[in-house]
Specification:
Blueprint: E1 5-8, H1 14-20, E2 27-32, H2 37-52, E3 58-63, H3 68-73, E4 81-86, E5 89-95, H4 100-110, H5 115-128, H6 132-145, H7 150-162, H8 166-175, H9 178-182, H10 184-198, H11 205-214, H12 219-231, H13 235-248, H14 256-268, H15 273-287
Parallel strand pairs: 1-3, 2-3
Antiparallel strand pairs: 2-4, 4-5
Length: 288
C-alpha cells in the first residue's frame, strides 16, 4: 500500500518537500505548537487522514516555536492553522481546529481521485444495481490498476460471497495481508466468511424454528439460528441466541458457542461497539 507522506518542515527541506512536491500532489501545511492543545488535536486528525489517504496528499507540519523563520515567511499564523498548497500556490487556508469531516471535505474538493478508487466506486454502483458481472469486471480492472489497494480485494471477497462463491472468497481473503484482515472492514468480512461456512450444512430456517418449538434447548438448532440471524443483520438477537446456547451447553461441538461468540464480537466491535461491550460483559459474567 502507498505510504503516508508526513513531514516535519525545516528551512533545509521546505523548497523540495513543500514547493516542488506541490506540483505533483496537494500539500497541506499544518502550523502547530507543542504548547497548543488544539493544534496537537489537529495534528492527530490530519495524521490519521494522511494514513487513510496515503499517496493522495502530503501533510507538512511546521512547529512555529522551532521554525520561527518559516512561520514568519507565512505571516506568523496562530496555530492551529492550515494552508493548502497546489502547484506552489496557496489555494485555501483557515484558522482553528476543524472536525475530521471538515478536513475530509477540504481534501475531497481538491484531490484528484486515484484511478483504482474511481473504478471501485463504479463497481459499487454496478453491484447495487445487481450487475454483478460488470462489478467483477470493474473490480478486476481496479486491482490491475493498483494491486496494493486492499479495499478492492475486500470488495471482491464480498462480491464472491454475494454470488455464492464461498471457496473463491475464502481463498482471496486468506491471501490478504494481516493489516487488511485486521482492519474493521476486514474483520467484518472475516466474520461473514465464518458464518457463511457454518451455514453450509444448516437446515431451512423453518425447520430450525420448528425444532426449537419442540426442543428449545436443542444445541444444533440454537447454533444455526444464531448464524442465520447474524447473516441477516439481526445482531442483538444473534448474540442473545449464542449466549443461550452457551448457557445450555458451553461444551457443544468442542466449545463452539464460545468460539462463535468471540467471532461475532470481533465482527461487530467497530460498527456496534456499545452493543458488543454490553454482551461481552454478559458473557464474562457467565464465565465467572
Amino acid at each position: 500500500m502507498p505510504e503516508a507522506m508526513i513531514i516535519d518542515v525545516t528551512l533545509n527541506n521546505i523548497q523540495e518537500m513543500v514547493i516542488q512536491n506541490s506540483k505533483q500532489l496537494p500539500v497541506l501545511i499544518q502550523f502547530w505548537s507543542p504548547s497548543n492543545q488544539e493544534s496537537q488535536q489537529a495534528n492527530h486528525l490530519l495524521e490519521s487522514l494522511a494514513q487513510e489517504m496515503a499517496g493522495q496528499f502530503i501533510l507538512a507540519k511546521i512547529d512555529v516555536d522551532q521554525q520561527q523563520d518559516i512561520a514568519e515567511k507565512f505571516s506568523n499564523p496562530t496555530p492551529p492553522y492550515y494552508k493548502l498548497i497546489k502547484d506552489a500556490d496557496i489555494i485555501t487556508e483557515a484558522a482553528g481546529l476543524k472536525t475530521e469531516e471538515e478536513y475530509r471535505t477540504l481534501f475531497q474538493a481538491y484531490l484528484v481521485e486515484e484511478p483504482s478508487e474511481k473504478l471501485r466506486k463504479e463497481a459499487a454502483q454496478a453491484f447495487a444495481a445487481g450487475e454483478f458481472d460488470l462489478s467483477l469486471q470493474l473490480l478486476t480492472e481496479a486491482a490491475q490498476e493498483n494491486p496494493n489497494n486492499i479495499k478492492i480485494h475486500l470488495d471482491l471477497v464480498q462480491l464472491y460471497l454475494h454470488t455464492d462463491q464461498l471457496e473463491q472468497a475464502q481463498e482471496l481473503f486468506s491471501k490478504l495481508p494481516d493489516e487488511a484482515q485486521k482492519e474493521p472492514h476486514g474483520r467484518h468480512i472475516k466474520g461473514v466468511l465464518y458464518f457463511t461456512e457454518q451455514m453450509q450444512q444448516a437446515p431451512e430456517i423453518t425447520q430450525i424454528q420448528a425444532t426449537l418449538a419442540d426442543s428449545p434447548k436443542d444445541g444444533a438448532s440454537l447454533f444455526y439460528l444464531s448464524t442465520y440471524l447474524i447473516l441477516n443483520g439481526q445482531v442483538e438477537p444473534a448474540f442473545q441466541t449464542l449466549l443461550q446456547l452457551f448457557t445450555v451447553d458451553r461444551t457443544y461441538e468442542n466449545g463452539l458457542p464460545q468460539k462463535t461468540l468471540l467471532q461475532a464480537f470481533d465482527m461487530y466491535s467497530a460498527s456496534q461497539p456499545e452493543l458488543v461491550a454490553k454482551y461481552r460483559r454478559t458473557f464474562q459474567s457467565l464465565l465467572n
